[in-house]
Amino acid sequence: GGHLARGLTDGAFRTMDDGVRANPEDYALLAEYGKALVAAGKPREAEEVLQRAVALIDFDPDSWAALGRARLAAGDAPRAIEALDRALALDDSVSSVYGGLGYAYRMAGRTEEAMRAWERAIALNPGDDFSTYQLGLACLERGDKARARKLFTAILEARSGELTPQERDRLTALIEKCK
Question: What is the pTM of this model?
Answer without folding.
Answer: 0.84
